[in-house]
Amino acid sequence: MKLRQALTVADLRAIACAKLPRSVFGYVDGGAHDERSLRANLEAFAQVRFAPRVLVDVSQRSQACKVLGQQFASPMILGPTGLAGVIWPDGDLAMARAAAAAGVGFCQSTTSSSSIEQVAAAGRSDHWFQLYVQKDRGVTASLLERARLAGCPVLVLTVDMPVQGTRERDVRNGFTVPPRLGLDKLFDYARRLGWLWRIANGPRLSFGNLEEAKNPRRNLTSLAAHIGAQFDASVSWKDLDWLRAQWPGKLAIKGILHPEDARLAVSHGADAVIVSNHGGRQLDGTPSALAALPGVVEAVDGQCEVLMDGGVRRGSDIVKAMALGASACLIGRAGLYGLAAGGEAGVARAISILQKEIDIAQALLGIAELGLIDQAVIWQSTA
Questions:
Q1: Active-site residue flag, 278
Q2: DSSP conformation letters of 184-244
Q3: Assigned CATH topology for domain 3-377
Q4: Where are the domains of the chain?
Q5: Phi then psi for 333, rounded to 5 degrees?
Q6: Model confidence at 196, in pLDDT bands (50, 70, 90)?
Q7: Residue 164 has pLDDT above 60, yes or no
């Protein structure tokens, strides 16, 4: 299947599977342990039914929204994903450019392949920045200052990764950073010559934000081990107070599932919480993000914005999340499938597919302004 023939995110996933080596596709596609939480994210949307209204004038429709003070054409932000450069050369820049062109948000990961400054120079100076607090608070403070100077209006603090979850698919597939061309993978890589040629001829793979200035060409394998060792399992609410004092912009806390944690986030100065189980890549057996969303919305009681991240594969999924109280959704794998399928053009295709599906859903629901959506569009069974 060619990119122009892709009608759905599932089509983009199929193209990505065909174009990427098994280990790299598994890195994008997989989750922790038995991947129950990953599947729960997808299955949760299928359990929600719409209650459409008819004979409503929907000849003029808008899905524009404001999220944390920023105006977007659609309620989606391409979520933070590490090492997009393994999928496509300069993958972070491709995603940032596609998001900017479509008028949607882009959140850069701490462990992105490109640096904060490179993304800003690519024409996305209003991108969000996602932070993992490092053991060396000096490194953390430096990242905050760089994000501020680059013009990032929103800091997204990820809080559900004190240690990395076990992703057994990666272990079985032998995924390494950078990918290694061993004899066991030779046939697999030989069938993906396009990917192999792009990676071989593209920019050197790196962690753009975390390379040491004094040693910028450090071996990526050793750098990855160093970065992993710098994740701080001691981070607590007092560190959030420190961060709030350091960061002048909007602050969103990503990785919230429990209502009490949502209340605590508000009390510690969060401007938004992002309901997420890390795409099912951390603790397997958690509820889906969609299932946790209503409880978090009730807990914060309008004191901060609520976003959702996890399992979005259809524009109608975004509509369902908004109906249940989310301001917008972060899009992770859907964007990466597009990136693998065709670089910047593939990401643009993924965004366009979701935008078209949002438009159709809101028209058939009888909602001209997506910002007016509420639980009334969700079917409440009386059975």
A1: yes
A2: GGHHHHHTTHHHHHHHHHSPPP--TTTS-TT-TT--HHHHHHHHHHHB-TT--HHHHHHHH
A3: TIM Barrel (3.20.20)
A4: 3-377
A5: -60, -35
A6: confident
A7: yes
pTM of the model: 0.94
Task: Tell me how many degrees the CA angle 68-336-350 measures, rounded to the nearest 5.
Answer: 75
Positive or negative, the CA dihedral 115, 117, 123, 124 is: positive
Which position has the token pair 């690519």?
Answer: 122
Give me the phi and psi of 66, to 5 degrees please.
Answer: -115, 125
What local confidence, expressed as pLDDT, does residue 314 receive?
A: 98
- Please tell me which residue in 127, 226, 258, 278 is annotated as part of the active site: 278
Give the containing element (helix H, strand E) for 155.
strand 154-158
Q: What is the pLDDT of residue 219?
A: 54
Q: What type of residue sits at position 39?
A: R
| Structure-token pair, residue 222 | 């050793």
Model pLDDT, residue 58? 97
Instruction: Tell whether the model's pLDDT for residue 114 goes beyond 60.
Output: yes
Which H or E run contains 295? Answer: helix 289-300
